[in-house]
Amino acid sequence: MPDYLLSTSPAMAKRHARHTRFQWYGRIAIAISISFMLLMFTAIFFRGIGAFQKTMIAVDVQFTESQIDPSGTRDENSLKQANYKPILLQGLQQVIPGATERRDRNNLYKLLSNGATFDLGERVARKPELIGTSQRVWVAASSEVDLYVKGKIDPDVPEDLRRLKDRDIAWIETLRASGQVKKQFNKTFFTSGDSRAPEMAGILSAALGSFFSLLICFLIAFPLGILTAVYLEEYARKSRLTDLIEVNINNLAAVPSIVFGLLGLAIFLNFFNLPRSTPLVGGMVLALMTLPTIIIASRSILRSIPQATRDAALGLGASKTQTTFHHVVPLAMPGMLTGTILGMARALGETAPLLMIGMVAFIVDVPKGVTDVATALPVQIFLWADSPEKGFVELTSAAIMVLLVFLILMNVFAVYLRKKLERRW
Amino acid sequence: MMKKLLLCGVVAVGLAACGGGDSSTTDAPSAGEKAAVTSGRDQIKIVGSSTVYPFSTTVAENFGRSTSFKTPIVESTGSGGGLKLFCSGVGANHPDMTNASRRIKASEIKRCADNGINDIIEVKVGYDGIVLANSRKSDQFNITLRELYLALAKDIPNGNGGTKPNDHQRWNEINPALPDTKIEILGPPPTSGTRDAFVELAMEGGCQTFDWIAAMEKTDKDTYKAICHSFREDDNFIEAGENDNLIVQKLNANPNALGIFGFGFLDQNADSVQGTVINDVVPTFENISDGSYPVSRSLFFYVKKDNIGVVPGIEEFLNEFTSERASGQDGYLAEKGLIPMKPEEHAARKASVLALETVSLD
């Protein structure tokens, strides 16, 4: 049979080889990018996973009235602010009787978190009948102890290079032997604001700050963006002016985000005197930043809707506005929402513009509204990454994990909307 | 399908509309808050140095937890940026206090006065050492300020009364006793207060060991500054950004490199990095505190006296900050790496702060 397909010709073999080679280049490229991504995710995961657990120490506390509430008034504030250090220390000394010198007592007490006394204060204020009783309470261990229990401090390192000394370790082991040390789910991480002590720090205030900022951002950017896109696409006649506007929108989309922060500082803070460090201003700045993205995405969606839809509606006697709002915009809505969500996902990860308007700050209180001072998730990550205490290393990674979860959720939602509602022509 | 899409559109528009409704309802209580903001805040606002930030936030947190006042807000803006904000005006939209890793300058006091801030209280926080450190995988460095200057400066003396571009590539070219490794120093960028202090204390300290340059300080200040303050721009000095943790990590990765950062980071990372001995003094808590370690500076914060009584809690905050349990010898700030003042100085400073004495630079 004659070789019609030239399958034996050397030129053909070369062609085939090139074909396979190219496919392999592509596969290798994908494999490399995926392995980088996996490397990053696993590194963050293994560094951060520890932060979801925290070490607790059980202390047998005697709530003596003379110590906590000498006046006997049971006033909530004075119960909260009473000095619980002596009774916690007494509890520890029952297990470790050796520590009686002032310095030893201080060191022993440092096994517990600084927050332990505030924690007891809260409990007693909530349940004043505790006074006079004797209870076993679980309080947070200090960050150093926590790191040791999690195996992140190597006891074989020479003692003077460690912050946790041999005697501290011996004390921890004594406590552990009597069943007074345990690891449990770190609820604090999700329910409290920032703290200088890693074992007391949480992401709630940052997460809420991000939420309020994005809310404001959505409320401003979504209607403005959609209206601009619809007008430019459906109503505006093509002219020099619309060309100019288009060029400007495209340029704005590429402006570095810090510039929007400076703009926010100059206009919202200095000119309008809006309150500094609040999600209100943060959201406005982020809205300015995401607006061009939303407009560009929405316009391209509107452009992809077939002219036939408009012609049919107009042909049946609908007005221009009816055509637009009854037919074109509803068809484009899923795409426009997708564009908005993707724009907001980018806004969620921004720190630079927030820097200028004072949202890079230490904030303990959880914000309750858009005019309360707040920080944002990526800012919290930045602040923790910059802290000297070792305990913040795992918190930083844990916060990155939380931020990634939010980003993935937003992107999945955008994909879902597109898949579920988008129409193809 | 069409209906569903329409519904989606309506829902989306509705969402925007009811979102609008939400914003107006949340605005209602916030109008009251805004009024509170303009007539006087109920929360202290602090800005300023990133070096003082860990200490300031620690006190703020303790203050917030142990009193009925709100926890102060602390922003990290850098010393210069903080003083600029601090001096930009009176009223609730401007901070009550600013942290500084150096003393306030006369020009800044003037700027404050121009904007109606005449009475500023200066609070000394304590001391901070700036250390040069390397990985524990290599040997501890032992150098003098003069050698440090010769390693880092852009131009160095050429031996006959002039200068030449710095051509030192390896440590043993400066002093044969130093190791035969490439000079690699990681340090903060010019915007950082740590860099300012390092220039002033270490670079000038080394520079002044050359008599003719020291003499120039009086006669030709500009040339003096050019010689003493400029860092080399080749790859022997690497600007590593403001993040000191990053420098520590890079030192672990590159045992030949030295890094410049605050003592607090050395204290927390003593298991992986070691401080360089400078002029035969080891950077330890004791040596910095008694002043024998040459590269140490004072940390301050500044308070608007007029805001006391307007913003609640300022006096109580000052009380907490200057208390023995915070900034004293065994206070909780020492735990965070602050080098406290000697008891006598602490007591004297505390008394003048609590008497609300205002700052004057002479």
Task: Describe the protein's architecture and organization.
The complex is a heterodimer of chains A (425) and B (362). By secondary structure, chain A is mainly alpha-helical. Chain A has helices at 10-48, 65-68, 76-80, 85-95, 102-109, 116-126, 143-149, 166-177, 188-191, 204-235, 240-253, 257-271, 279-304, 307-315, 320-348, 352-356, 377-385, 392-421; strands at residues 53-62, 134-140, 181-185, 361-362. In chain A, α11 packs across α13 (279-304). The longest helix of chain A is centred in the first third of the chain and has 39 residues, at 10-48. Chain A is extended and about 95 Å long. Chain B is an alpha/beta fold and 362 residues long. Helix content of chain B is 45%, strand content 17%. In chain B, strands 1, 2, 3, 4, 8, 9, 10, 11 and 13 form a 9-stranded mixed sheet that branches. In chain B, strands 5-12 form a two-stranded parallel sheet. The model of chain B is unreliable at 1-39 (pLDDT under 50).
Overall pLDDT metric of chain A: 89
CATH superfamily of the largest domain in chain A: MetI-like
The top-level CATH class of the largest domain in chain A is Mainly Alpha
Give the end-to-end Cα distance of chain A, rounded to a whole number of Å.
47 Å
What order do the helices and strands of chain A follow? HEHHHHHEHHEHHHHHHHHEHH
Strand content of chain B: 15-25%
The number of domains of chain B is 2
Mean pLDDT of chain B: 83
Termini of chain B, distance in Å?
81 Å
Largest sheet of chain A: 3 strands, antiparallel
Examine the coordinates and then state which fold CATH places here, giving the name of the CATH topology of the largest domain in chain A.
MetI-like fold
Rg over alpha carbons of chain A: 30 Å
Query: How is the quaternary structure best described?
Result: heterodimer
Any idea what the CATH architecture of the largest domain in chain A is?
Orthogonal Bundle
Strand order of the largest sheet of chain A: 2-1-3
How many discrete structural domains of chain A?
Answer: 2
- Overall 3D shape of chain B: globular
What is the correct CATH architecture of the largest domain in chain B?
3-Layer(aba) Sandwich
Helix fraction of chain B, binned, reads: 40-55%
Number of strands of chain A: 4
- Please report the number of helical segments of chain A: 18
